[in-house]
Amino acid sequence: MKPIVMIILENCPHCKNARRWMAELTQEEAQYQELQVEMIDEQLHPEVIKTYSYYYVPTYYVDGVKIHEGVPTKEIVRDVFERALG
Question: Could you write out the DSSP letters of every residue in 44-76?
């Protein structure tokens, strides 16, 4: 299982949607319940996010590789989860 890092902004509507889909997918698929997602709010942790290369939130990294940046869909979130399982 590979680590997932998600860069967010607390008030970002796209981040809220992504978190909702993450919760839905975790309820729908038992295998996703074991995944660990480290959420980093760029406003709360500006020093940490300097080590990442991105422009838009939410941004997903799986095992240090950027998988998605910007407006997500539930299918994109599922793809992130699947890559983390692989």
Answer: T-HHHHTTS--SSSSEEEETTEEEEESS--HHH
14-46: per-residue pLDDT in tens?
999 999 999 999 999 999 999 999 999 999 999
Alpha-carbon gap, residue 60 to 4, rounded angstroms: 7
Q: What is the spatial distance between Cα 23 and Cα 46, in angstroms, rounded to a whole number?
A: 26
Please report how the helices 74-85 and 13-28 are oriented relative to each other, as an axis angle in degrees rounded to 10: 60
Residue (of 62, 66, 63, 77) closest to 24 by Cα position: 77
CA–CA dist 72, 31 (Å, integer) = 21
Burial class (CB in 10 A: 0-12, 13-18, 19+), 11: exposed
